[in-house]
Amino acid sequence: MKLYASIHGVCGLAEGYSDTTAVFFKTLEQAKEHKARILNLLMEEEVKAIESNRGFSGGLQVESLSDGTQDIVTFNRDEAEEEILKIVEVEPLWDTEPKSRHTREYLMWNQIDCEAMYDGDYLPTDMGCIKEATDAMHGTVSSIPMDDWADFVGDMYYRGEAMLDADDVCIHFFRVPKSDTL
Questions:
Q1: β-sheet bridge partners, residue 70
Q2: How far apart are CA 82 and CA 75, in angstroms?
């Protein structure tokens, strides 16, 4: 069964990049409604900021895809203040079989490029995420402190989401829920 992830985050590594979120839905319409609510909230916040700061010209722009699955909101082009709202279609492999109830899959979000890795087609399991993380870090850092690595692995297993942040690599891992829990 297909699911739809509604991603909300800043573009690239601007302030607040670690607050990227993903909410999963059963239908594309539900995901689009969620994305539209967030877009409306962003627009309201910007209008309030402009009104409270008379004379401010933030240069607010919204760039949307025609199919309604992505919006990029630019608050200030000079300061590279942009947020992305994107819907990613995922098809969990381990969703339907009762034997696989405990097999977890993750959607990986490349924060630097503002896109789902593998277009959301490949959803690694827990150990697949560990392999993806070590592969991504290979050659970018000479070593990672064990406390940071333990936090990353603990976040994946216990919180259901984690962020790998090292030099030129920033990847969010979001656990894909089982469809019967949505």
A1: 86
A2: 6
Q: Is the pTM for the entire model greater than 0.70?
A: yes
Cα–Cα dist 163/110, whole Å: 10
DSSP 145-162: -HHHHHHHHHIIIIISEE
Domain that holds residue 113: 3-181
User: Rounded distance, CA 144 to CA 104, Å?
Assistant: 25
Q: What is the pLDDT of residues 140-177, one digit of tens each?
A: 777 777 888 899 999 998 999 999 987 788 999 999 99
What 3-state DSSP class applies to 82? Answer: strand
Instruction: Determine the Cα–Cα distance for residues 22 and 175; give it in Å rounded to an integer.
Output: 9
| Tally of domains in the chain | 1
